[in-house]
Write a structure and sequence with these properties.
Elements (H helix, E strand, L loop, with lengths): L2 H34 L9 E3 L9 E3 L2 H22 L13 H18 L9
Antiparallel strand pairs: 1-2
Length: 124
């Protein structure tokens, strides 16, 4: 057996083992999800009333509709909290340390060196 065919056989065995390991991990993850996942409940009828005058009473009979309503309520709460507690960004200080100045100038010099370098192999 010549070295090329021997190398190809070793490569094929290695790639096969990698794919078998990936499939085993996939099966293990699927097994763990099925074990830890809650069992689906039967379809339950839930009445949800919205207190706005514009919209009528909504009756949801399906889990997906309930999830959509819960998600929209969560978004409304998050938007109201964002108005009450806005995100505060830190103010840029006017004085920076010597260490920051040296590091920033070093980065600028490196990027300028990349842009202004001479190309290899071509002569004019």
């Amino acid at each position: 057996m010549n070295p090329i065919t021997q190398g190809l056989i070793i490569t094929a065995i290695g790639m096969g083992l990698v794919f078998v390991a990936i499939l085993l991990l996939w099966a293990l993850m699927d097994f763990l999800v099925r074990i830890t996942n809650d069992k689906p409940a039967d379809k339950a009828t839930v009445k949800v009333e919205i207190s706005t005058e514009e919209e009528p009473v909504i009756k949801t009979e399906d889990k997906t509709h309930r999830l959509h309503h819960v998600a929209s309520i969560a978004v409304a709460i998050a938007m109201s909290l964002h108005k009450q507690f806005p995100i505060i960004t830190p103010q840029e200080s006017s004085t920076i340390s010597a260490w920051q100045t040296s590091k920033r100038s070093q980065v600028l010099n490196q990027s300028a060196a990349l842009l202004n370098r001479k190309s290899r192999g071509t002569t004019k």
